[in-house]
Design goal:
With 421 residues, the chain is mainly β. The protein has one domain: Neuraminidase (6 Propeller). It is built from 1 helix and 35 strands. The chain has a 7-stranded antiparallel sheet, with no helix packed on it. It has a 5-stranded antiparallel sheet with strand order 2-27-26-25-24, with no helix packed on it. It has a 4-stranded antiparallel sheet with strand order 4-5-6-7, with no helix packed on it. The protein is globular and about 45 Å long.
Length: 421
């Protein structure tokens, strides 16, 4: 296993990738300390995730499941062969799907509390997975073993697997919290619905109404469910081609199981997608301030341009507090194509939010208090302790946008400048 250099940048920095804004993560008024885990040594399209559970950030780099502990600053790589795709994490459980060269798929479980790893029995087959989630007690996923996609659940404690959906249509992208499982369902038509299955009484219920249009990617926390929805788009997403589907006017919707009330969270005429939910906080990808960069611009002859196709757009990360009804921009991405500055895939757990930040992983830790006054750049290698502080020869600038004031800070020079925006 090769060494993996990681650069952790304290205070609110993002190198060339993004601009961080002080946030009240998960409804907590305490300031967060965004950091960037720098993964430039890896192919940027092969960084997937991340997820967050407790103080552990989970992501995939070059197809290997990787853990980064925010407390100990230690990095652990769980896999070595680069064939690991879907993964999920909650409480002490980290789960993922391993695809063999022969085309079979196995599911693995790693226990953060014991350091023990095991293969989930009976998952070795040439099936396709669409969605994987865990709440730490159970694992849910959708696979194609029956010729269509069905949702299955695995009880971690007793090792039993149960098929939850048996309809001949597709049920995909499940999420779980306690006794409640939600997923995307196509049983009524080609238009999706969000369904809920209650493990306590083994009952099904449809959450979305006929007004919903291609609702997808549901998440559940307690008695709240969120998803992305295309009902406010005036175009047919599937006849406009893939770029239209990826960047159409998706909005975030919320459903309260206690009240039976559905609420539209976002109203902007651009894409708000891939919501994540914890307690009374929602985070999502937001395109309202980021230009569409599909197809990619022409490559100047005197500039470096990657060969691969870029993501179809660049997203910001937004946060919404359900209790107060307030929305704020958590992270602003840099839409410059050559910077490879894709920002997205947010996840939230407690007062910690993580996201993919260009060629790295962004972390907003609401429990960490104020930013480091020294602005240190710390280089961490796999399993290395204690930390080794490594100054950079080139300062790393960052900007914080607060109330119309642009603040520029050059790390290590500790030069603070203010100017009108």
């Amino acid at each position: 296993m090769r060494g993996l250099p990681i650069i952790i940048t304290f205070t609110c920095i993002a190198a060339v990738f993004l601009v961080c804004i002080p946030c009240a993560a998960a409804g907590n008024a305490a300031p967060c300390t965004p950091t960037i885990v720098d993964l430039k040594s890896y192919h940027w399209e092969r960084i997937e995730g991340p997820e967050i559970t407790g103080s552990t950030v989970v992501f995939s780099a070059d197809g290997n499941i990787t853990l980064y502990d925010l407390g100990t600053k230690r990095l652990s790589i769980l896999t070595k062969d680069g064939n690991n795709t879907l993964f999920a994490a909650a409480k002490s459980a980290v789960v993922w799907v391993h695809k063999s060269p022969a085309g079979t798929a196995d599911m693995y479980l790693y226990d953060l509390s014991t350091g023990q790893q095991r293969k989930i029995p009976g998952t070795n087959s040439p099936r396709i997975f669409r969605g994987l989630a865990t709440d730490g007690r159970s694992i849910v996923w959708a696979d194609s073993r029956n010729g269509n996609f069905d949702v299955f659940i695995y009880n971690i404690a007793n090792g039993t697997e149960t098929q939850l959906s048996k309809n001949p249509s597709d049920q995909e992208y499940p999420a779980i919290d306690g006794t409640k499982v939600v997923w995307t369902d196509t049983r009524r038509s080609n238009n999706y619905d969000i369904y809920l299955y209650d493990l306590a009484d083994q009952s099904f219920s449809r959450i979305t109404t006929d007004a919903a249009k291609f609702p997808n990617m549901p998440k559940i926390s307690g008695t709240r469910i969120v998803w992305e929805d295309l009902r406010n788009d005036n175009n047919d997403a599937f006849t406009k081609g893939e770029p239209r589907y990826l960047t159409g006017n998706f909005d975030i919707y919320l459903y309260n199981l206690d009240t039976g009330k559905e609420t539209q969270i976002t109203t902007h005429t651009s894409a708000q997608r891939e919501p994540a939910l914890f307690g009374d906080t929602i985070v999502w990808n937001d395109q309202r301030d980021s230009p569409l960069i599909y197809p990619p611009p022409a490559c100047p002859t005197d500039s470096f341009c990657p060969v691969e196709t870029p993501p179809p757009s660049v997203y910001d990360i937004y946060l919404y507090n359900i209790t107060t009804g307030t929305e704020e921009k958590l992270v602003r991405s840099n839409p410059t194509y050559n910077d490879r500055s894709y920002t997205g895939n947010p996840a939230i757990n407690g007062d910690k939010i993580v996201w993919k930040a260009g060629e790295g992983i962004g972390v907003c830790d609401g429990s960490a208090g104020t930013a480091s006054p020294q602005g240190q750049v710390v280089t961490v290698k796999a399993g290395e302790t204690p930390l080794v502080v490594t100054p950079r020869s080139t300062p790393l600038p960052f900007e914080v946008s607060v109330a119309g004031i642009l603040v520029g800070l050059v790390l290590f020079g500790l030069e603070l400048k203010k100017k009108d925006r």
